[in-house]
């Protein structure tokens, strides 16, 4: 899933060197990437936790 996201991000950015050397844009990506990762973790963590707890309730050891 993450590989597809990276490929989509790469496709959205034209590979012109003028754009690559734009430090403002680079800083923007450096700030946005961890934010997206954090949001993804915050969304997925409760879902996984609920799945694990419901699984434990269904099959008590």
Given helix and strand content, the structural type is mainly alpha
Series of secondary-structure elements, N-terminal to C-terminal: HHH
List the domain count as a whole number.
1
Mean pLDDT figure: 74
List the helices and strands and how they pair.
Blueprint: H1 2-12, H2 17-20, H3 23-58
Organism: Paenibacillus yonginensis
Transmembrane segments: 26-52
Protein name: Sugar ABC transporter permease
3D architecture notes:
This is Sugar ABC transporter permease. The longest helix has 36 residues, at 23-58. With 61 residues, this protein is an all-alpha fold. It has helices at 2-12, 17-20, 23-58. The chain has one domain. The chain has 3 helices and no strands. The chain is rod-shaped.
In brief:
The protein is mostly helical and 61 residues long.
